[in-house]
Amino acid sequence: MKADCCEQCMHQLCTKKVPIFSTLTSDELNQITKLIIRKHYKKGELLIHDGTKLENLVIINQGRVKAFRDTIEGKEQILYIFSSGDFFGEKNLFMNKEATYHVEALEETSICMIKKSDLGELLSIDPSISLKIMEEFCKRIERLENTIESMGVKNVESRINIVLLEFKDKFGSEHPKGISIKLPLSREGIAHYIGVTRETVSRKLSQLQDAGIIEMVGNKQVIILNQEELESSIK
Questions:
Q1: What distances in angstroms separate CA 158 from CA 76, 149, 184, one per listed residue?
Q2: Interatomic CA distance for residues 155 and 11, integer angstroms
Q3: pLDDT tens across 119-146, in order?
Q4: Per its UniProt record, what CDD domains does this chain match (predicted)?
Q5: 0.85 exceeded by the pTM?
Q6: Cβ-contact 65, 118 below 8 angstroms
Q7: What DSSP element (H or E) covers 112?
Q8: What residues contact residue 5 under an 8 Å CB cut-off, 6+ apart?
Q9: CB 25 within 8 A of CB 103
Q10: Angle 58-64-70 (CA atoms, 0-180°, nearest 5)?
Q11: Residue 81's beta-bridge partner residues?
């Protein structure tokens, strides 16, 4: 994203993309945009380090990032994939906490930040924003619970199918053959996301392709050809 884009739109694009601000009026959005600080990151740059103070509510304006932590075994465990319109740092509203994960840019990324000290002004504009943030926070907890359950109970095929359906909902677009997904993660990244090996991910994707359920286009795109079959195979 060009550096002057946010200046041209007065940061409106940032706030309009975020679900928690979706019900605000233009005047209310204008008040929020006055609080915004803009930053840009290159692919591979860390936005946040584990253990650092969380001082801002961070909105992804353009790009994708991953939130991850290092396991005791020294492996990477991916917790979330944040893309345009997503936000993190919401714990600042309720407690003074340090980050419990790293956040790394998966591609060139532009973010808009609102300082913790300004969040009170934001909530005075619309107190319901805090409830919307809590709802999103609860959804993330639910997703983590489902991930833990799938890693402990679901078989490998189901885990692959679940993550493809998750990416479909978040990154999918209509395609003449079905639904096209620009994968936010490499094979190794998907493996870290669902707790299997890279080889297992590659093998299971090939099996799904051989069965006519998906079509792989290079390493970064998957087309879901038969969504019903993909869903019915989850056990």
A1: 21, 12, 19
A2: 44
A3: 777 777 677 777 777 777 787 777 767 6
A4: CAP_ED, HTH_CRP
A5: no
A6: no
A7: strand 109-115
A8: 13, 110
A9: no
A10: 80
A11: 66
